[in-house]
Specification:
The chain is of the alpha+beta class. The chain is 46% helix and 13% strand. It has a two-stranded parallel ribbon. Helix 3 links the parallel strand 1 and strand 2. It is elongated, with a radius of gyration of 18 Å. The termini are far apart.
């Protein structure tokens, strides 16, 4: 029992860091893209990432969500994705 409790209390998932996409890889994205960034993200500089995406991805919509950390709240994510998909469908760029 003590071993199980210790495992539950101390286990941490360790995921490998995702590789950063190169400028060429980002520039090769040829479909409409939606990128949401957390305004209070401690993992990355959201404004810098947004600027880079706008500079390199041809058809991109970006938003820095004020107060959000690295995980965008589901209700905001769900609304922005639905709006984006409708916009893309209405524009005929899909």
């Amino acid at each position: 029992m003590l071993l199980s409790l210790e495992a539950i209390n101390t286990f941490r998932v360790r995921l490998p860091q995702p590789q950063r996409m190169s400028d060429d890889e980002l520039g090769a994205i040829s479909v409409p893209a939606l990128l949401l960034f957390g305004g209070a993200d401690r993992v990355m500089d959201s404004r810098r990432a947004e600027d880079r995406a706008r500079r390199l991805i041809r058809d991109v919509r970006t938003e820095v969500v004020a107060g959000a950390r690295h995980g965008i709240p589901a209700h905001i994510f769900n609304q922005r994705v639905a709006d984006f998909l409708q916009e893309v469908e209405d524009s005929g760029t899909a």
